């Protein structure tokens, strides 16, 4: 059974569980070649996709139409005929920053309920090493009554897409693959080679593949944390951090990281999966957690610097009006998940500041429901005591410094968190 399946990727009938930023592009790529069912518990999401639209903007309507073998359903019954399941549900953390496995467990139960002998379940969600086989597989076994690596098999292939990035798209990014047996690893690898032009890297085990993904994001988090710490030191020393980085960057092996707010669904979250596992096995990950602490404190740092600047300019902070430009966690992308711009807003409000937020990309409903923020419809000139340029949307870059300054009162403060304007056009940058 195993060998047959390994040789016969052409017979794969794919079921994708979870059609978000990761699952939809994957469903579309497989749906060009193989019968594919895209399943999501969110009925609204299924309706929007069936109507040929994707609010995440990762997939164009024309690309959706090109995936001729892809159909969508919010009914798990539609997965019955599948023999390869790919799970792409969220892996959030809870209020205590511990892994929240609820979506993965629910997806594992869904798969377990329809799984047949010989089927393969591949996980793409970011987890810590061991989670697939320690958390998901036992649930599948329990619900299906089938035995792991006897009746069904597993794989893990982490996703590396970068939302909003039109250059590095799914088929153009080398994909790490793995399987629960050598034959299944071959099968998983061959399967992904059907859709990944850039090629694959077959890891020696599921745990290696899981670890590879989580350290990619942990490394990035820590690199940014170092630069954020330097930004805090240089701010106290009265030195411009970007000027220092430009000077240091002339050395061939100096890494080009910039300071900033570290939000989003991945970099600010995934390291906590690894630190949780490390602590579970009795190792305290000092460096990783220190980096997390620094990055999580950057919103407050920005607010403090802005308030200091306003005070120095004799702008009365309490009841002042501050405009925050951008709310999404990154530029040119509608993703509001885990945006740390909200920390800047919260800290400013603690100082008695009245904060307006404008973001032409962010979803108004989500901003309201998740953060209690009502995004401005339009911008008015001459209104604000200070402006925080928080996200480098191309709309703000195109506006330029002069137009952005016109939104403020005469003498208003402009803080460029993302370093998108020339130094002389702003009062402060991170
Ligand atoms: N967004 C990224 O850039 C990115 C990149 C690499 C890896 N990842 C990882 O991929 C995983 C998915 O992330 P995402 O950004 O696509 O999340 P997302 O929130 O955009 O999408 C998840 C989808 O899964 C659905 N879902 C939730 N529970 C479900 C269930 N039980 N059954 C079926 N559908 C369910 C949701 O309705 C949603 O549509 C996470 O582990 C994330 O860390 C994300």
UniProtKB/TrEMBL annotation:
Keywords: NAD, Oxidoreductase. Gene3D superfamilies: NAD(P)-binding Rossmann-like Domain. SMART domains: UDPG_MGDP_dh_C (SM00984). It comes from the Bacteria. It holds the Pfam family UDPG_MGDP_dh_C. Residues 323-423 form the UDP-glucose/GDP-mannose dehydrogenase C-terminal domain. The keyword Lipid metabolism does not apply. SUPFAM superfamilies: 6-phosphogluconate dehydrogenase C-terminal domain-like, NAD(P)-binding Rossmann-fold domains, UDP-glucose/GDP-mannose dehydrogenase C-terminal domain. Belongs to the UDP-glucose/GDP-mannose dehydrogenase family. NCBIfam families: NDP-sugDHase (TIGR03026). This is Nucleotide sugar dehydrogenase. It comes from Tahibacter amnicola.
């Amino acid at each position: 059974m195993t060998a047959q399946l390994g040789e016969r990727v052409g017979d794969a009938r794919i079921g994708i569980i979870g059609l978000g930023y990761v699952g939809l592009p994957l469903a579309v790529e497989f749906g060009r070649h193989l019968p594919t069912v895209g399943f999501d518990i969110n009925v609204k999401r299924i309706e929007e996709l069936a109507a040929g639209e994707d609010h995440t903007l990762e997939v164009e309507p024309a690309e959706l139409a090109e995936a001729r073998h892809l159909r969508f359903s919010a009914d798990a019954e539609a997965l019955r005929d599948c023999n390869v399941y790919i799970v792409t549900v969220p892996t959030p953390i809870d209020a205590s920053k511990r892994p929240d496995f609820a979506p993965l467990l629910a997806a594992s139960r869904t798969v377990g309920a329809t799984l047949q002998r010989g089927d393969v379940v591949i996980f793409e969600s970011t987890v810590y090493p061991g989670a697939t086989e320690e958390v998901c597989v036992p649930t599948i076994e329990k619900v299906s009554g089938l035995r792991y690596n006897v009746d069904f098999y597993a794989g893990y292939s982490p996703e590396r897409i970068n939302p909003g990035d039109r250059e590095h798209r799914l088929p153009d990014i080398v994909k790490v693959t793995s399987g629960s047996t050598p034959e299944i690893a071959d099968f998983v690898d061959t399967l992904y080679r059907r859709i990944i032009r850039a090629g694959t890297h077959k890891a020696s085990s599921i745990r290696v593949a899981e670890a590879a993904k989580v350290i990619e994001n942990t490394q990035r988090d820590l690199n940014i944390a170092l630069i954020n710490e330097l930004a805090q030191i240089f701010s106290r020393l009265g030195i411009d951090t970007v000027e220092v980085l430009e000077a240091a960057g002339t050395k061939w092996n100096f890494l080009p990281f910039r300071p900033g707010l570290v939000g989003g669904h991945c970099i600010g979250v995934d390291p906590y999966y690894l630190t949780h596992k490390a602590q579970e096995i009795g190792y305290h990950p000092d460096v990783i957690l220190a980096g997390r602490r620094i990055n999580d404190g950057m919103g407050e740092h920005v607010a403090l610097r802005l308030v200091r600047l306003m005070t120095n300019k004799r702008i009365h902070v309490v009841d002042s009006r501050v405009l925050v430009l951008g709310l999404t966690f990154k530029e040119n992308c509608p993703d509001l998940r885990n945006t740390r711009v909200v920390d800047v807003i919260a800290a400013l409000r603690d100082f008695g500041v009245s904060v307006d937020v404008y973001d032409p990309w962010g979803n108004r409903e989500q901003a309201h429901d998740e953060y209690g923020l009502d995004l401005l419809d339009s911008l008015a000139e001459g209104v604000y005591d200070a402006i925080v340029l928080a996200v480098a949307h191309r709309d703000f870059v195109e506006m330029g410094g002069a137009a952005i300054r016109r939104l403020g009162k005469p003498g208003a403060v402009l803080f460029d968190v993302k370093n998108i304007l020339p130094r002389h056009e702003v009062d402060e940058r991170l």
